[in-house]
Structures are given as C-alpha cells and as structure tokens.
Design brief:
With 139 residues, the chain is of the alpha+beta class. It is built from two helices and eight strands.
Length: 139
C-alpha cells in the first residue's frame, strides 16, 4: 500500500510540474519593462530608430524596420545601441515607415509608425550609387 501512495504522489507531482511549467511562461510577464520606439527621419533620407525603456535607450536588441513607397516594400534589421541607430538611407520620395520590436524575456514588444518625405539625396547615397555603377561597368 505504501508503494501505491508513492506512485500516486509521484504522478501527482509530475502533473503539477507539467501544468506549472506550461502556464508559468505568462505568469511573470508583469515583470517585463515596457518599451517604445522612436523613429526619426531627416530631409536627406536618413532613418534612425531608438528603442527605449524608462526614457533610456535599450542596447543589443533587434528592431525590424519596414519601409513602403508606391507599393514597394523593403525591410531593414537594426541592432539597437545606446543611442538612436541608423536603419537606412532613402532616396527622395514619400515613405511609410513601421518599426517593430517583438519583445523578449525582459522587455515587452512595441511598434511605431511614421511618414517621411525625403527632399534631397545624401552624399553617402550618391557615393554608393557611383560605387555601384563603377562596379557594374568593370564587370
């Protein structure tokens, strides 16, 4: 009879542990810190993102930046730093920008949207275009 009690107690313990482990993942979400994403654009096409928590930049997290213009879409991935990080440089035009952080075990997810009107082309963009053309011509 003692052996039956041991087996029943063991089975109950396994069931309880199984239930706790499958539910506990969401139990402590209230301990996560809220985040916000700031999207900053310049007239010459630079797009910066800054993932923040408690008004401080959060480092070493991945933010996806989606850029849409005239039905064309492009996705950029940014690894955050201690200040705003450069996501991309755009050519002149109108853009819809969405930034998304999926969250992790320490931070809650967040997203932000912005529109940008790029009115001039940056020298970096010109230099890259010239490099690409020269590279294509030399093949």
């Amino acid at each position: 009879m003692d052996m039956k009690k041991v087996i029943i107690a063991s089975l109950l313990a396994l069931m309880v542990l199984g239930c706790v482990s499958s539910v506990s993942a969401g139990w402590f979400d209230f301990l996560k810190q809220d985040t916000t994403i700031n999207i900053n654009t310049t007239s010459n096409g630079s797009v910066f993102v800054d993932l923040q928590s408690s008004n401080k930049s959060v480092e070493n997290k991945t933010v996806s930046v989606f850029v849409e213009t005239n039905g064309a879409n492009k996705t950029f991935t940014v690894n955050t730093t201690s200040e705003q990080a450069l996501a991309c440089i755009l050519v002149p035009g109108q853009y819809n920008i969405t930034a998304n952080f999926t969250g992790d075990d320490q931070y809650n997810p967040s997203n932000a949207t912005a529109t940008a009107e790029v009115t001039e082309i940056s020298q970096n963009t010109v230099d890259q275009i010239v490099t690409d053309i020269n590279s294509a011509l030399s093949k």
